[in-house]
UniProtKB/TrEMBL annotation:
The UniProt record lists the keyword Plastid: no
Superkingdom of this protein's organism: Eukaryota
Name recorded for this polypeptide: Acyl-CoA thioesterase 2
Record keywords: Signal
Pfam families: Acyl_CoA_thio
Transmembrane segments: none
Native species: Trichinella pseudospiralis (Parasitic roundworm)
PANTHER family, A to Z: ACYL-COA THIOESTERASE, ACYL-COA THIOESTERASE II
GO cellular component, one term: peroxisomal matrix
Record's keyword annotation contains Signal: yes
Signal sequence segment: 1-20
Length: 321
């Protein structure tokens, strides 16, 4: 047990700063260009600390950042569609980097499309397609959903405290606390989350979450594609949590949780991922060992930045039910 714990600690130190926070900009910018359309990255973090599996949101962000180098200046991401094929392993092991193989699919005066295969050693672990669009200065239609009412984020508790409040209301045991800490440690070290709706007895079973969220570190001065990449990264975090929220009593019986696909549509580009953004996630259905979740993200001044959707695999052990 101790060698395993020391190994995990060593890998964690390689990925964090002196104060324990992940260098988010380095994780996204640390993609080395090997050829015109081939990139490599060895600086990865785990989605779940003890599993050492690569976190899909980070790979999405890095792929989006790499693709930005292959499109003409002035083109900005319109949408991305991701299929998670196989779990990447051994995060922070520099001997097992991931490769981003980019294939141009379409280029026109107003739109570009790129497909990306993400490979680790011999395995293709993720497939993405990204559509870029050149902003048009023409008359356009406009409407958008109003941002939900929310208190000042600086007056709300951080991520770890509301999770523990939730578990306490559920009457959770020590194992549940350990599982939640493992699921959220890497996320809370990368982003600052503030949950809006304090948990109480009347809303425990709602498959909905509402957060203020921003990057821990300043991203000022970085090119716009970094903010798109970080927002995409954020959009993948804790989406599954909305689907699991009504089923916390089954935490210890879950044998597998994995994102199957993830999509993002950008509605605006004038936003900063190091400023507070309101992120709402809602699971409309869970059936057939799969959960479907949608997400919407607003800037603090009420502009709808992006919409997202995700399907996740959630398997329960029949022996433990």
């Amino acid at each position: 047990l101790w060698p395993r714990m020391l190994s995990l600690l060593a890998s964690r130190l390689l990925c964090t700063s002196s104060n324990g926070l992940f260098f988010l900009s380095n994780l996204l910018k640390g993609v080395e260009r090997l050829d015109k359309h081939i990139y490599r990255c060895s600086d990865l973090i785990e989605g779940v600390v003890a599993s050492q599996r690569i976190f899909g949101g980070q790979v999405i962000g890095q792929a989006l950042n790499a693709c930005a180098d292959t499109v003409p200046e002035g083109f900005l991401p319109n949408s991305l569609h991701t299929c998670f094929l196989k779990g990447g392993k051994n995060a922070c092991d520099t001997n097992k980097p991931v490769l981003y193989l980019i294939q141009p699919q379409h280029d026109s005066a107003t739109r570009c499309c790129r497909s990306v295969l993400v490979k680790q050693q011999e395995d293709t672990i993720i497939s993405l397609s990204v559509v870029y669009q050149k902003p048009e200065s023409v008359l356009e239609i406009h409407h958008e959903d109003k941002m939900p009412e929310a208190p000042d984020p600086d007056q709300l508790p951080k991520c770890d405290s509301w999770f523990h409040t939730y578990l306490k209301l559920r009457g959770a045991d020590e194992v549940d606390y350990m599982i939640v800490d493992m699921l959220t440690k890497g996320i809370s070290h990368t982003f600052d989350y503030r949950e809006i709706q304090f948990y109480n007895k009347s809303n425990l079973n709602l498959p909905r979450n509402l957060f203020w969220v921003k990057a821990h570190e300043s991203l000022k001065g970085l090119r716009p594609c970094i903010h798109h990449a970080v927002a995409s990264y954020i959009s993948d975090t804790l989406m599954i949590a909305a689907a699991l929220r009504p089923h916390v009593e089954l935490f210890t019986k879950v044998t597998q949780i994995a994102s199957l696909n993830h999509c993002v549509w950008f509605h605006r580009h004038d936003f900063s991922s190091d400023q507070w953004m309101l992120y709402e996630t809602l699971s409309t259905v869970a059936a057939g060992s799969r959960a479907f979740v949608t997400g919407r993200m607003w800037s603090q001044d009420g502009r709808l930045i992006l919409s997202a959707s995700q399907e996740a695999l959630v398997r329960i052990s029949e022996q433990n039910v």
